[in-house]
Amino acid sequence: MRKRLMIGGFGGQGVMLAGQIICYSAMEMDKAGVTFFPSYGAEQRGGTANCYVVVSDDPVGAPIPQTVDDFITFNTAAMKKLEEKVRQGGTIFVNSSVVHEEPSRKDLKVIKVDATNIAIELGSARTQNLVMLGAYIAYTGIISLESAEKVAEMKLGKKRPQMIPVNKAALEKGYELGKAALEAEA
């Protein structure tokens, strides 16, 4: 298996954290090749942010692929700017709470996740990245839900231990949505 993923949004939306959770989880699952390559805009919070993640059963040659299999987008600007990097027939996971437009390309599968609204219902808008991540891992099977929860707790639990249940609920709700999207295609 080899999955090439790009995650895009604004700084502060948890783009990098989502990519890191996938990478740490994949390493824990003994994948042979895992790379993470972040890219930030000139601004701090609110500027563009994206990252590339490659997870493979074999060693990875380059951290930045020419094209990606999947793209998780947290906002319209990222979708418009980066959708061209998705391979033909690839999949875009869209935070439909924020992105109200369709991708311009018609050769892509689109999975819509009402991530921000779900995160607010769960108690923290900041967990919208975990909702999106849960949907992605259920749909692709790239890592296990249990591994993602463990890594999320490790990365986030020290600073805000009171958020551990909300973070877990966000991953689980997203996972349910991703699983439902996958089953709907069958």
What does this structure look like?
- This protein has one domain: 3-Layer(aba) Sandwich (Pyruvate-ferredoxin Oxidoreductase, domain 3), CATH 3.40.920.10.
- It is α/β, with parallel strands linked by helices and 186 residues long.
- It contains 6 helices and 6 strands.
- The protein has a 6-stranded mixed beta sheet with strand order 2-3-1-4-5-6, with helices on both faces.
- The protein has helices at 15-28, 76-82, 115-122, 128-140, 145-156, 164-185; strands at residues 2-10, 33-40, 48-56, 68-73, 86-95, 109-113.
- Helix 5 runs antiparallel to helix 6.
Q: What is the terminal-to-terminal distance?
A: 21 Å
The name of the CATH architecture is: 3-Layer(aba) Sandwich
Shape: globular
Sheet with the most strands: spatial strand order: 2-3-1-4-5-6
SS-derived structural category: alpha/beta
Identify low-pLDDT runs.
none
* Estimated share of beta-strand residues: 25-35%
Q: What is the helical fraction, as a range of percent?
A: 40-55%
Task: Give the key terms.
Pyruvate-ferredoxin Oxidoreductase, domain 3; alpha/beta; 25% strand; 186 residues; 41% helix; globular
Helix and strand arrangement:
Blueprint: E1 2-10, H1 15-28, E2 33-40, E3 48-56, E4 68-73, H2 76-82, E5 86-95, E6 109-113, H3 115-122, H4 128-140, H5 145-156, H6 164-185
Parallel strand pairs: 1-4, 4-5, 5-6
Antiparallel strand pairs: 1-3, 2-3
Helix pairs in contact: 1-5, 3-4, 3-6, 4-6, 5-6
